[in-house]
Amino acid sequence: MSPLEPARRDGVPRQRWLLPGSVADAWEPEAATGRRVRRTTRDWLVDVAAFLLAIVFAVFTVATRVESSPAIPEELLALDQLTGALGCVALWLRRRWPVGLAVALTLAGTYSEFVAGATIVALFTVAVHRPLRVVAGVGVLAVATTFCYAALRPEPDMPASVVVAFGVTVAAAAVGWGMFVRAQRRLMLSLRERVDRAETEARLRAEQGRLRAEQAQREAREQIAREMHDVLGHRLSLLSVHAGALEFNPEAPREQVARAAAVIRESAHQALQELREVIGVLRAPTSAPTSVSDDAAISASTDVLTRALTDVPSGASTGAPASAPTGVHAGADAARPDRPQPTLAGLPRLVEESRQAGMRVTLLDEVGDPGAAPAALGRTAYRVAQEGLTNARKHAPGTEVVVRVSGGPGDGLTVELRNPLPARGGAATGIPGAGRGLIGLAERAALAGGRLACGPLASGEFRVLAWLPWPV
After folding, report:
1. What are φ and ψ of residue 174, in 5° steps?
2. Residues 364, 342: contact at Cβ < 8 Å?
3. Region Disordered: what ranges (predicted)?
C-alpha cells in the first residue's frame, strides 16, 4: 500500500460531512451500503435549505397573488396552495426519485403557480444526478408546461410572451446550475480516480521492482553457489583422495608420503586461492586485493595443516626450506592478485591433476587451437570437465575416464566425459556431495546458450555431454 493511501482513507471519514453523499461514496466505496447513497450532513443541510426555499417561494406567491388577483375563487386558491404544500413536502424524496418528482411537479405547474419553487428545485436535482438526455427531456417538458400555464392562466397586466420568457429563463437557470454542479463533481471524481490510479501504478511498480530485486538476488545466489561448487569441489575432492590414501597406507615410503603431502598442500593452496578469488568478486569493486600478509598467513596455516596430517617436513618434496614455499607462494600471489580464469587451454593441467590423484584419465583434444576459444566459452567448458572428473572420482573410483573435446567456431564446442558405471555394490570414496553439481552444470550451460545431458548409457557407461555455442 502506498504511504499516501492511509492518509487519504483516514481523511475521507473526517471530511465526509462536507461532501455530497454521491461523492463521498465514490471516494470511499468500501463504506457504501447497497444501491442507495448515504446522505451526509451537507446533504441534510442542502435538503433543509431547498425545502425552506420552496416554502418561502410559495408563501411569497400566495401573498402577491391574493393581493393582485382577489377574483380567484377560494376553492381554486386552496387547491393551488395545497398542491404547493405537497410539492414542498415531496422535495424530501427528490434524491430517491428525482426524475419522477420533477415530471410530477412540472405537470402540476401547468395550472398551479404555488408549486413553482418546488419545481425549480426538482429541475436542479435532475440536472445534478441524471445524464444529459434525461435532463433534456425534463427540460423540454418544463418549457412546454410554461406555454400551457400562460395559455390557461393569462395575466391581465402582463403579456403571455413575458410570462413564457420568465418561466423558460428560470427553468434554464435551474438546469444550467445543476449541470454545472454535476460537471464539477465529475471533475472532482476524475481527479480522484487519476490520483488512485497513479498510486496503484506506483505500488505496482514498487512491487515489480521488489520482485525483480528478489529475482536478481536469487540468480546471484545460484551463480555464487555454482561458482563455489565448481571452484572448491574439484580441489577438495583431490585433497580428500590424497588424505585418504595417507590414512589407509600409513606405512608407505617416505618419498610417496612426501609427494602426497605436497599435493595436499598445493591443492589446499589452490582451493584457498580460488575461494579468495570468488570472495573478491563478491566484494565491492573498490575493495583492495588481499594483502601479502594475508596470503602468507593462509599459506602458513596450510603448511601447518599438512605437517600435522603427514608428519613430513614441508620442504621434503622440493628440497627447499620449510618457509620457502610460503614465501614464494605469497610473493607470487602478491605479484598477481587477479589470477587468470580457467580456459580451454587449461584442460591438460586439469587432467594431469586428476592423474596425480590416482585417476586414469584419457584426454582427446580435437580442437585445433584451444587458445582461440572465447574466455566465457573456455571457462564453461573447463567447469564441465572439472565437475565431470569430480563426479567420476566420487562415485566411480578406479574407473577410466575419457574426456573428449571437439568443435570449432561456428560449429560449437562439444565436451564429453565417459566412464564405466561402477559395479553394483562397489565401494565409493565416501566424499560427501550436495547433489547439485550436474544440475549446476546444466544451468551454467543453459546460461551460455548451450545444453547438457548426462546419464547412463546402454553400453554400461555414464556420460556427461555438453554442447556450447562457439561464435564465428
Report:
1. -65, -45
2. no
3. 311-351
| Cell reading at 186 | 465529475
The answer to whether residues 384 and 343 touch, using CB atoms and an 8 Å cutoff, is no
**pLDDT tens for residues 209-262?**
999 988 888 887 777 777 777 667 766 777 777 677 677 777 778 777 777 777
| Phi, psi dihedrals of residue 77, rounded to the nearest 5° | -65, -40
CA dist., res. 433 & res. 429, Å (int):
11
| Paired residues of 407 in beta bridges | 413
With CA atoms as reference, report the closest residue to 250 among 261, 238, 235, 236: 261
Strand residue runs (E) in 166-254: none
Greater confidence (183 vs 342) lies with 183
d(CA 290, CA 420): 43
Side chain identity at 329, as an amino acid letter?
H
Helix (H, G, I), strand (E, B) or coil at 113: coil
Q: What share of the chain is helix, strand, coil (3-state, %, to 5)?
A: 65, 10, 25
The single-letter DSSP state of residue 37 is P
Instruction: Indicate the pTM of the whole model.
Output: 0.45
Query: Residue 222's Cα: distance from chain center in Å?
Result: 19
Strand partners, 400: 360
The x, y and z cell numbers of residue 101, run together, are: 418528482
Structural domains in the chain, sorted by start = 4-206 (no CATH), 249-339 (no CATH), 342-472 (3.30.565.10)
d(Cα 271, Cα 265) in Å, to the nearest integer? Answer: 10
At 108-124, the pLDDT tens digits run 888 888 888 899 999 99
